[in-house]
Design brief:
3 strands
C-alpha cells in the first residue's frame, strides 16, 4: 500500500507489536532507526523532532506515531 502515492508503506504496523500510541524512549528510537543511542539522543534534541509527551529527570518519551509521522515527512534524513 502506498502513502499519498509516494511509494512509501504506511508507518503502522512496521512491527506487529507496535502501536501508534506506544511511548518510546531514546533507546526505542535508536532501535527503530537502527542507529546508536548517542546518535538518537542528538536526533531527538533537534528543533524539528517531535516534542516528548512525557519527561522525567533522565529520560523523555515520544509517541511512536509522532516519530513515524516525522519520518514520513522526510525530516529524518536531514
Amino acid at each position: 500500500m502506498n502513502v499519498d502515492g509516494l511509494g512509501m508503506t504506511p508507518p503502522f504496523p512496521y512491527d506487529e507489536d507496535m502501536a501508534e500510541d506506544d511511548l518510546w524512549t531514546t533507546a526505542d528510537v535508536a532501535s527503530r532507526l537502527t542507529i546508536s543511542v548517542e546518535r538518537a539522543r542528538r536526533l531527538c534534541s533537534r528543533d524539528d523532532f517531535p516534542q516528548p509527551v512525557e519527561s522525567a529527570p533522565y529520560f523523555d518519551r515520544w509517541r511512536a506515531g509522532d516519530v513515524e509521522a516525522w519520518l514520513l515527512d522526510g525530516r529524518g534524513g536531514h
